[in-house]
From TrEMBL:
Family: Belongs to the archaeal 6-HMPDK family.
Protein name from the UniProt record: 6-hydroxymethyl-7,8-dihydropterin pyrophosphokinase
Domain of life: Archaea
EC number(s) per entry: 2.7.6.3
Function: Catalyzes the transfer of diphosphate from ATP to 6-hydroxymethyl-7,8-dihydropterin (6-HMD), leading to 6-hydroxymethyl-7,8-dihydropterin diphosphate (6-HMDP).
GO molecular function: 2-amino-4-hydroxy-6-hydroxymethyldihydropteridine diphosphokinase activity; ATP binding; kinase activity; magnesium ion binding; thiamine diphosphokinase activity
Keywords: ATP-binding, Kinase, Magnesium, Nucleotide-binding, Transferase
Gene name tied to this protein: mptE
GO biological process: tetrahydromethanopterin biosynthetic process; thiamine diphosphate biosynthetic process
Cofactor: Mg(2+)
Reactions accelerated catalytically: 6-hydroxymethyl-7,8-dihydropterin + ATP = (7,8-dihydropterin-6-yl)methyl diphosphate + AMP + H(+)
Chain ranges of the 6-hydroxymethylpterin diphosphokinase MptE-like domain: 43-186
InterPro entries for the chain: HMPDK_MptE, MptE-like, TPK_catalytic_sf
Amino acid sequence: MDFKKWEPIYEAILEDFGFSREDDENSAILLSNLLIGSGTADTNTLEELISGKDVLVCGNAPKLLIDLKEVNVEDYVIIAADGATAPLVDKGIVPHVIVTDLDGDVEKEIQANQKGSIMVIHAHGDNTEKLLRYVPQFRNVIGTTQAAPFANIHNFGGFTDGDRCVFLASEFNAESITLVGFDFYDKDVTPMKEKKLKWAQRLLGAF
Ligand SMILES: Nc1ncnc2c1ncn2[C@@H]1O[C@H](COP(=O)(O)OP(=O)(O)OP(=O)(O)O)[C@@H](O)[C@H]1O
Ligand SMILES: Nc1nc2c(c(=O)[nH]1)N=C(CO)CN2
Ligand SMILES: [Mg+2]
């Protein structure tokens, strides 16, 4: 994603939520340093995995398991959005890629990572403690930010874990992108989650 294209959307998100760009930037610097310690994965791995392939993006809506019955998971490169990892792992499915800001079931994500999942870990102003605690426990990590990319920190576009999966699949030239476990009208969510889902829906309108 060209950051100049993403930046106006990012500025609108910052304003809507009252997030601080400086906090996001400092969190990204922290993640960059943590990855220098533990080893950053190469984005070529994502290119090789995704380019020309059919991708299944798994969101964490309650209907995820119902949606999964309609697809043959073996036909896809599977990208799990954060909390979607646990129900997949419980069904014996190891996602090829996990996109996370580490506020889901991180223990399940560590298990999946040990079985081969590539981690795409997102730094933002409200997850620095999670980064410090968990990043050293993962291998094969690619770091992302919603602010400007630099050095070993990327910005493929997107905001919530779920829509960032789709931006990532698009960035690496997926042949097709199929969504399961997305429900933007889920009423059983907090007001904050409802607001984030509205942004996810809006951002996915571009695809
Ligand atoms: N009804 C839904 N409830 C929860 N997540 C949903 C829903 N529909 C789609 N999603 C997508 O699934 C992703 C993963 O969901 P999860 O429950 O892990 O949320 P989360 O980690 O709190 O999300 P985020 O960190 O992006 O706020 C979300 O980022 C969202 O894009
Ligand atoms: N600063 C900040 N940025 C975010 C946050 C958040 O809570 N705070 N949540 C996200 C995933 O929904 C993505 N980006
Ligand atoms: Mg999350």
